[in-house]
Amino acid sequence: MNRSLVSRATVLLVAGVLTAFAASAADKAATAKVRVPLPRPLDSGVNDDPYPSAYRPLPSQPAAIVHATVLTGTGEQIDDGVVIMSEGRITAVGDATTAVPPGVRVIDARGKWVTPGIIDAHSHLGVYPSPGVASRQDGNEWTSPNTAGVWAEHSVWPQDPAFQRARAGGVTTLLILPGSANLFGGRSVTLKNVPAVTTDAMKFPGAPYGLKMACGENPKRTYGTRGQTPMTNMGNVFGYRKAWLDAVRYQHKWETYRTKLAAGESADPPDRDLGLDTLAGVLAGRILVQNHCYRADEMATMLDIADEFGYRITMFHHAVEAYKIAPLLAKRGVCSAIWAERSGTKMEAIDGIGANAALLQRAGSCVVIHSDDTTLIQRLNQEAAIAVGAGARAGIPITRAQAIAWITANPARALGIAEQTGTLERGKMADVVLWSGDPFSSYTLAEQVFIDGAVVYDRHDRRFQPRSDFELGQSGAGEFHP
Fold first, then answer.
1. Sheet strand arrangement including 210-214
2. Are residues 225 and 76 in the same domain?
3. C-alpha gyration radius of the chain
């Protein structure tokens, strides 16, 4: 054989081997690249709750409240009723024939009423705490129309004395929201209203996050006066749509990345964005939209935007014109968080009416009475009573058994925790209020408040009237005397 041909064949053979080796090495390198996980903080899907709840129920003992008028929150009123709690759960609810197990502490509640714990679906306690000094005003990040990346829990001050005032009003759970200066204000957090030093010790276990959005005058006033966008309702809607477009693209990038990984292909991860993480969580159904919105037409526009981008709105807050679109809200399953009477405070609230709640109830829509106020949170039962009275004057009778759901079962639904609390039913958390009388009377007070079966407030026992460390420090009652 020609020596030059042999040499050429040898070269080709060696080159082929080297090429095969290089290809094999490249395949191994690609495989290694695919299989090496991203560091946890860089992967938006690895840890959906990096700040988990550290809540632990307070010590409790089995108790039975007997001979009370019981409003279960399910639409039922039980006269001469019984509620039994054990190991932090409700174990029985019934009439006087309900057997009380031996060894259970019995609370005779003749002439008194029992309801589920009150849930305030719109609160700023801890982020706008008392005293209201400038250095503690942590509820609004006024720096951009879109601050979806901030989380309210990182502003909550657990030592806010207002938490105890709310407990004295029967409030056992709160949704703490960022303020409404921005189109996207950030994430909300649901808290159990227990004394605590850290926020994670108050976080409601398993409660979904919410996204605070705001429409109408607040974003326009905040940014329009600075000559920035938005300064009109057109600008508001543009801001929402642009943000959701960015979120859809972001979600698609991560889905494409994970699909390639699952197929064994090499893929570069997208850059993580904390604000888009929140919006993508909404698109995926993990985060609930809590939308500040007063006017009926603006609520309808927000529903259209939700349809355009494939997410749903859980609740409109401050929805003073909800009665105008009650059938639409009922059809869409959207709750309305409202006051009993608050109109004329600004132009977008000019058409507020007292019968708002009753009209929504008649249309089969979800009604929630909320506070948005450190004083009103102490008497949400009275606010519900005012709304009942306005309905009666409009010819729409609402029973107590129906109205109690406005401050218990319905807000639990809107917060995504209805499977755990909000009604007096066997197996649910023993979040319970014992009232001195009819809770819809202005003369009635919360006598005892239970959270997971533990007494967190007792009007007649100072041992269960806790004060925060801040209050103790200011009063001098916490001084150490050797």
1. 118-123, 171-176, 184-192, 210-214, 288-292, 313-317, 335-338, 367-369
2. no
3. 28
* Nearest one of 425, 411, 439 to 114, comparing CA atoms: 439
Q: Supply 89's token pair.
A: 């759960």
Please state the separation of Cα 216 from the chain's center in Å: 21
Q: How far apart are CA 173 and CA 417, in angstroms?
A: 10
Question: What span, in angstroms and rounded, lies between the C-alpha atoms of 321 and 313?
Answer: 17
410 shares its domain with 347: yes
**Do residues 191 and 265 share a domain?**
yes
Range of the domain at 438: 60-116+423-482
Q: How far apart are CA 301 and CA 251, in angstroms?
A: 24
Cα separation, 208 vs 189, whole angstroms: 8
Same domain? 96 vs 159 = no
CA–CA gap between residue 173 and residue 409 (Å, rounded)? 12
267/346 same-domain check = yes
d(CA 4, CA 299): 84
Q: What angle do CA 320, 323, 325 make, to 5 degrees?
A: 110
Q: How far is CA 188 from the centre of its chain?
A: 6
Interatomic CA distance for residues 80 and 62, integer angstroms: 20
pLDDT (tens digit per residue) in 190-221: 999 999 999 999 999 999 999 999 999 999 99
- pLDDT of 1 > 50? The answer is no
Tell me what pLDDT residue 475 has: 67
